[in-house]
Write a structure and sequence with these properties.
Radius of gyration: 22 Å
Distance between the termini: 21 Å
Helix content: 25-40%
Pfam families: G_glu_transpept
Protein name: Gamma-glutamyltransferase family protein
Length: about 525
């Protein structure tokens, strides 16, 4: 890519990191180094991604865990592969079953929003299909950190403390006591710099490694999850775990100014990024700091998100097709709605037809874009006794409206926020990218892609650039570093601009780009967290 790597209009704490033989970029230095160590032991980018992901369940439990979901985009031997390792709702759950219990809105915590965890299946599926090293060796660094402990990093400590204080106020029932035993063993979250360990987490990782996750889905750990669920009236059963398999899927993408931007197909929200880019490619942008650039980005994202929230769910339940949502005809129709003032967005009618992110690359040309989450930080607030497994609360995203595409149903996958991204040009990979952070993710993807393709920023500058996030209606949050004169001009266009003085929910991203001629890797990591690029 023809970037001037000396140019960074957004001074950052870091410069772009370069490497030749391998690279791992993620939000925790210990996890990034673990992935690089696996590369140095003869593993490939896929092995490194699994090692990093497993480590992140230990060294960043505020954002992900063994009991969460995962998605991956994997470039191997000239082809991009997609893996959807998100789990469905329990087969016995339904809108009617919840209403019989007096539940009219899906809660954030407890057993009701718990869905089948997919992350362990992702590690195994990736290892079996593309890995070089045995899973026991790949998960060894994560097991060691869980056994021996590690000092809590600054951003991790901040979020851990906030979660523990919040949970003390809202998680008062007996079923939540195991969370406090595991993550606040002395009545509080570990302090920054304090060593935290989890023997139960280590034992579970060992069992996953030795059985290739069979114990988790069809063995002893599955029995533990089943017993815990039954004891507290949950819907999840070992039959749900036993029936689960991750899905290899064909990635979806759109052409954008000579590049191809790739995402995982629904039930993920990556299509929201693609819808917005499809709208925006009808414009010419000559400068990033122009008011019209931001205005059109925000308006396109509004339109894309309202469509995503209306139509995106598990593929078999969507009332409109991916092809129609990404058609040029529909993009032009939606583009015509963008005027000079901020709009109140409404979904269109297409023609019928707390998360961690990591990127890895190796000298063979393999590259992985991987994302993993429990959702809303620690997830459901439930930890399976003695296992360290914090269960996700992904079912909170289901709708209780039976006529909605994303209506709750047994054995169904919900609208999913976590999305890995990948960029190609012609038949060559440019590389993996991602921005974690709930509904910020497709908005972060759009901003990173445009920073790269339209505004020619190198990876670190593309991540450091001040971000905005559309929230609802005409409300837009911006970072304190966002140009004030642009914010004022956007307000005059009718946008309700708010500066997020507390740091705000602007996501945390990673990028690795590969030069097709030299094979040199260029990585950027997130300055908004404890991010790190480990290069070789």
């Amino acid at each position: 890519m023809n970037h001037d790597y000396l140019y960074n209009p957004y001074p950052s704490q870091r410069m772009t990191t370069f490497g030749k033989r391998g690279m791992v970029a993620t939000s925790q230095p210990l996890a990034a180094q673990a992935g690089l160590d696996i590369l140095k032991k003869g593993g490939n980018a896929i092995d490194a991604a699994i090692a990093t992901a497993a480590c992140l369940t230990v060294v960043e439990p505020t954002s992900n865990g063994i009991g969460g979901d995962a998605f991956a985009l994997v470039w191997v031997k000239g082809k991009l592969h997609g893996l959807n390792a998100s789990g469905p709702s329990p087969h016995s759950i339904s809108i009617e079953a919840l209403k019989e219990k007096g539940i009219n809105e899906i809660p954030k915590f407890g057993w009701t929003p718990v869905t089948v965890p997919g992350a362990p299946s992702a590690w195994t599926a990736l290892s079996e299909r593309f890995g070089k090293l045995p899973l026991t060796e790949v998960l060894a660094p994560a097991i060691k950190y869980a056994e021996d402990g590690y000092p809590v990093s600054p951003t991790l400590g901040k979020f851990w403390r906030a979660a523990a204080e919040h949970f003390k106020n809202v998680l008062n029932d007996e079923e939540f006591k195991h969370w406090f035993e595991t993550f606040a063993p002395n009545g509080k979250a570990p302090e920054i710099g304090e060593v935290w360990r989890s023997e139960g987490h280590a034992a579970t990782l060992k069992e996953i490694a030795e059985t290739k996750a069979e114990s988790f889905y069809r063995g002893r750990i599955a029995d533990e999850i089943d017993a815990f669920s039954k004891h507290y009236g949950g819907f999840l059963r070992k039959e749900d775990l036993a029936a689960y398999q991750p899905e290899w899927v064909d990635p979806i993408g759109v052409d954008y100014r000579g590049y191809k931007v790739w995402e995982i197909p629904p039930n993920g929200q990556g299509i929201v990024t693609l819808i917005a880019l499809n709208i925006l490619k009808g414009y010419e942008f000559t400068g990033k700091e122009y008011v019209e650039t931001y205005h059109k980005q925000i308006e396109a994202m509004k339109l894309a998100f309202t469509d995503g929230l209306k139509y995106v769910t598990e593929g078999r339940s969507m009332t409109t097709s991916v092809e129609s949502l990404l058609s040029n005809t529909y993009a032009e129709e939606r583009r015509q709605l963008i005027g000079g003032q901020a709009m109140q967005p409404e979904p269109g009618t297409p023609p019928k037809g707390g998360t961690v992110y990591l990127a890895t690359a190796d000298e063979e040309g393999n590259m992985v874009s991987f994302i993993q989450s429990n959702y809303m930080g620690f997830g459901s607030g439930l930890v399976v006794p003695g296992t360290g497994v914090a269960l996700q609360n992904r079912g909170h995203n289901f709708s209780m409206d039976p006529n909605h595409d994303n209506a709750l149903d047994g054995g169904k996958k919900t609208f999913h926020t976590i999305i890995p991204g990948f960029l190609t040009k012609g038949d060559q990979p440019v590389g993996p990218f991602g921005v974690m952070g709930g509904f910020m993710q497709p908005q972060g993807h759009l901003q990173v892609v445009m920073n790269t393709v339209d505004f020619h920023l190198h990876p670190q500058a593309a991540l450091d650039s001040p971000r905005w996030q559309w929230m609802e209606d005409k409300k837009v949050l911006v970072e304190p570093s966002f140009p004030n004169h642009i914010a004022q001009a956007l307000a005059r266009k009718g946008h309700h601009i708010q500066v997020a003085m507390d740091g705000g929910p602007f996501g945390r991203g990673q990028i690795i780009w590969r030069d097709p001629e030299t094979g040199v890797l260029a990585g950027g990591t997130e300055s908004r967290t404890d991010g790190s690029v480990a290069a070789w």
